[in-house]
Records
---
Amino acid sequence: APQSYEHIKVSTPRPGVGLVELNRPKALNALFTPLILELNTAMKAFDHDPSIGALVLTGSHKAFAAGADIKEMSTKDFADAYGADFIESWSELPNTIKKPVISAVNGHALGGGCELAMMCDVLYCSEKANFGQPEIKLGVIPGAGGSQRLTRAIGKSRAMELILTGKNFSGREAFDWGLAARVFETPEQCVDGALDTAEQIASYSRIAVKAGKEVVNKSQDLGIREGVEFERRLFHGLFGSEDQKIGMQAFAEKKKAEWKHR
Ligand code: HXC
C-alpha cells in the first residue's frame, strides 16, 4: 500500500529506480528522529519491492541535510544517548539495504548529513555542495560513522584536519579527494546523473548486482586474502544462477540479455 510521508518524498521516476528526497525545508533537512524513521521505512520498502533495482537519495538544492537536529539533541544527557542507543536507528541504512543506494548531494551536507551521504554506496555531488563534519564546534565528534568513513575515503591526515577543525569542503574537493565518484556543475545534473546510473544498475541482473554490492562492501571489513576468497566464493556461486547462463549466452549470440532476476 502506498504510504504518505511528512518529511520525505518518495517516487519512482525511472524504470526500476526508487527516489527518496529529504523534505524538511524549514530546518534544511536536519535529521530529527521522525525523519530518520520515515527514511528507514521508505528505504526498506524499496529494498523489498521487486520492481525496484536501485535507489537514489537526495535532498533539496539548498541542503542535502544540515546535520542531526541540534535542537533535538541539545538536552540529551549520557543516559539518554547511551541508554536509548541514540543514532542506533541510523545504522539501519547501510546494514539492511541490499540494493545499491546512490546519494546525490547538493547544498549543505554537514555532520550527520555528510555521514548519511557517506553511508550510501555511491556518492555523487554538485560542485557547490558544502560538506563538513562540524561537530567539534558543538563540543562533540561525529557519531554516525563519519570519522571512519571519511578517513577511509580521503586518508587520515585530511580527515583528521577536517574533523578537528570543523572546516567545510566543497563538492569539487570531495571529488578531487575521492569521496565523490562524480561531480556535476549543477544540482539538476547531479540528480539526473544519479538517476541515470541507478537506471543502468537496475537494468542488470538483481542477483549479480546484489553480489557486487556485497563484495565491494566486504573490502571495507576484511583483509585482502579473506576479501579475495569471499569474492571468489560468491563469483563461483553466481554460476548457479540462471542469469550467468543468460548473460553469457546473450553475448555469444550478440543479443540483449533478458534477465530472469529483474
Ligand atoms: C536543527 C537546524 C540545523 C540543525 C539548520 N537548522 N541546521 N536545526 N539542527 N543541524 C535550522 C536553523 O536553526 C534555522 O531554523 C533553519 O534551519 C535555517 O537555517 P539557517 O541557519 O537560518 O540557514 P543559513 O543561515 O543559510 O545557514 C545554513 C547552515 C547553518 C550553515 C547550514 O544552518 C548551520 O550551521 N547549521 C548547523 C550545521 C551543523 O552544525 N551540523 C552538524 C550538526 S551535529 P530557524 O527556526 O531558526 O529558522 C551532527 C552530529 C551528528 O550532525 C552525529 C551523529 C548523528
---
Amino acid sequence: QRLTQPNGPYAGVTVVESTKSTNADLERGRPPDRTVLIAREQTAGEGRRTRSWSSPPGGLYVSIYYAPGVPAHRWPWLTLLAGVALVNVARSTGVEAVLKWPNDLLLGPGRKKGAGVLATTTDKGVVLGIGLNVQPVQAELGPGGLAPTSLAEEGANELDLTELATRLLLELDKWEAPWRAADGDPFVSGLHEEYRSHCETLGQKVRVELINGSFEGTARYLETDGTLVVRDVEGHDRSVPAGDVVHLRT
Ligand code: BTN
C-alpha cells in the first residue's frame, strides 16, 4: 500500500536495523507531521514509568510523530487511538484482543499483554511509540506488571513484520484522520465509541494506584481529554489522567 505517496497518510516511513529507541530518535529531531520510524530491534526500548521495553528482533517497534493541530488537552486521545489500532490489527490476525485502559493490548483468553504504547509530548506535537510483541519475548515483570505474550503464542495467522506494520499504519490513519478533522473531539469522530467497544476496564471495579496513594472504585467513562472517571466507594467521581496511573488493578 502506498503509505508515502503525495496523497498518502505519512510524510515518510523509515526502517532501521537497530537503534536505542525510536521514540527517543523522533523526540530529538524536528520531524515533519506524520513521520514514521520503525526499528527491527531497539537496544534501549523505553516503556511507561521509566520501565524498559524488551525489543529483540522479531517484534514491531514503531514511532510516529504527529503535529495534529488540535487543542493540546485532547492529545491524550492519540494514545487511546493507538490501542484501538492495535486491537484491530491483532483481530485481523485471528487473535482475541481487548484493551485495558489506557492502552495495554491484552491478547487471548488469558488476557496477557501483547503490546504497549508510550506517548511523549513535545511543544508542537506527540511522539506515539508502539511496541507489538510478534515473536515470544522474555520480559521482566515489574510490580503489578502483566504477564507478556505475543501474536505467535496466541496463534496469529499473520506474523510477517512488514505486513503487520502496514496494517498498523493504515489502521492508525483510519482513526487519526477523522479525529484530527473533528479538531480532536473523540465523540464527533467516532473514536470514543470505537475505543469504548474494545475497552474492558469501563464498568469494572478497579483499584487505582497513584504515585501518592491509591483508591478503589468503579471505572465509569472517559472524558474528551482521555481522562478516566472512577466513582470511589464514597460515591465521588474522580478523574484519573492516563499519565498519573501507576497500576490499574481490575
Ligand atoms: C509500555 O510500557 O507498555 C509502553 C511500551 C512502548 C514501547 C514502544 S516500542 C517503540 C517505541 N520506542 C520506545 O522506546 N518505546 C516505544
